[in-house]
Specification:
The chain contains five helices and eleven strands, in the order H-H-H-H-E-E-E-E-E-E-E-E-E-E-E-H. A three-stranded antiparallel β-sheet has the order 3-2-6, with no helix packed on it. It has two domains: 7-98 and 145-193; 103-141, no CATH class. Helix 2 (29-54) crosses helix 4 (77-91) and helix 3 (64-75) packs across helix 4 (77-91). The chain has helices spanning 7-25, 29-54, 64-75, 77-91, 173-193; strands at 97-100, 103-108, 115-117, 120-123, 126-129, 136-141, 144-147, 150-152, 155-157, 162-163, 166-167.
Length: 198
Amino acid sequence: MAGTKLIAARKELALARKAFDGLKEASSSDQEESHWKEFIGRLTRFWNKTESALKGDPKFFNSPHVKRVKVALKSDELIRYLSQARHADEHRHEETTNVMPGGFENVAIADTRMRIRNPKITINGVTMDVPPPPGYQRRAVRAELRLTAVKNRDQVYDVPRTHAGQDITLASVQNYAELGLAFYESVLDGLERDGWDT
C-alpha cells in the first residue's frame, strides 16, 4: 500500500504515464510534440518532488535510489538526455524535436526493422522515386516526430543511443519515453519497497 510522503511525486509519475499514453495515441507530429514536452516535464517534476518530500532525512541522500538517479543523470545517455531536453524546452526555449516528413517507406518483408523512407534518385538533374527493391514492399507513412540534440551551458547532448548499458535499437520518441518511464517507475517502486513512503 502506498504511503503519504510521495503522494505528489506519485501524481507526477501518473501524469507522465498519461502523457506517454497520449504520445502513443497521437495522430499527428504536433500532438506527439505536445505529449512529449508534457512527458519530459512530468519526469523532472517527479524527481524534484521526490527529493523535496524526503530531503529532511539525511539517510535519503545516501540511499541507493538517490545514488542510482544521480549517477544516471550524469552518465546514462537516455536519462541525462531526458533531463537536458526538459531544461532546453523550459528554460532556453529550444526545439528538442524535428519532424521527419511522411511519404512512403520501402520495408523489408523479412525484417520490418529495415526501412528506407522516401528513397529518391537524381539522374541528369531529374529526381524520381526509387521503387522498392526485391524483398521490400512499399507502404505509406505519416510524418514522425524525432528527437534532436539539445544544448545546455555550452554542452551538447546528442540523441541517446544507449540506456542502462544497452543499445537503444528503436530510435522513436515513443521508445525513448517508454524506457525513461520504466526507469523512473522502478525508482518509485524501490522507494516504496524500502519504506521511504511512510
